[in-house]
Specification:
Largest sheet: 4 strands, antiparallel
CATH class of the largest domain: Alpha Beta
Catalytic activity: UDP-N-acetyl-alpha-D-muramate + NADP(+) = UDP-N-acetyl-3-O-(1-carboxyvinyl)-alpha-D-glucosamine + NADPH + H(+)
Number of strands: 7
Helix content: 40-55%
Organism: Geofilum rubicundum JCM 15548
Order of helices and strands: HHEEHEEHEEEH
Subcellular location: Cytoplasm
CATH architecture of the largest domain: Alpha-Beta Complex
Family: Belongs to the MurB family.
InterPro entries: MurB, MurB_C, MurB_C_sf
Number of helices: 5
CATH superfamily of the largest domain: UDP-N-acetylenolpyruvoylglucosamine reductase, C-terminal domain
Radius of gyration: 17 Å
Strand content: 5-15%
Shape: flat
Number of domains: 2
Distance between the termini: 36 Å
Length: about 150
């Protein structure tokens, strides 16, 4: 847990790596990155981080050598952060109607006010199509869609 993102540094700023400090660190990080649901309706992370073959990673690295990835030893595949893909594709902070990609966290789709479920899904589908086109990677939704 401490080796994920900038958690270790944030915990060290609070003191020793106790359960209380780790919890506070995670709460603080989420408050910085995620929208206040009282201001913007959202379902949290909308897309799963895709697991891809190493050959797909190599193709992405040809254009973006800095692409972050995590090796999944049990499957021989790698996981690429969906938020990174969405941001690199230019969607972070963008809107379609009243639905938008949050300006601080590309994984979060928000309702800017009076967005319909169809508007949210239209935005999600546009992002999915763009990621497939630009990176040859299929995003999967983390949310459950109820129709």
């Amino acid at each position: 847990m401490l080796d994920y993102g900038n958690v270790r540094e944030a915990v060290e700023m609070l003191g020793e790596p106790s359960l209380r400090n780790v919890r506070q660190c995670i709460v603080d990080i989420r408050r910085q990155k995620l929208p206040d649901p009282g201001v913007f309706g959202n379902a949290g992370s909308f897309f799963k981080n895709p697991m891809v073959d190493v050959s797909v990673l190599s193709a992405v690295q040809a254009d973006f050598p800095e692409v972050p990835f995590y090796t999944m030893p049990e499957s021989g595949r790698v996981k690429i952060p969906a938020g990174w893909l969405i941001e690199k594709a230019g969607w972070k902070g963008q809107s379609l109607g009243n639905a938008a990609v949050h300006k601080n966290q590309a994984l979060v789709l928000i309702n800017k006010g009076h967005a319909t479920g169809r508007e949210i899904l239209t935005l999600a589908e546009a992002i999915e199509a763009d990621i497939r086109y630009k990176f040859n990677i299929t995003l999967q939704r983390e949310v459950n869609v109820v129709e």
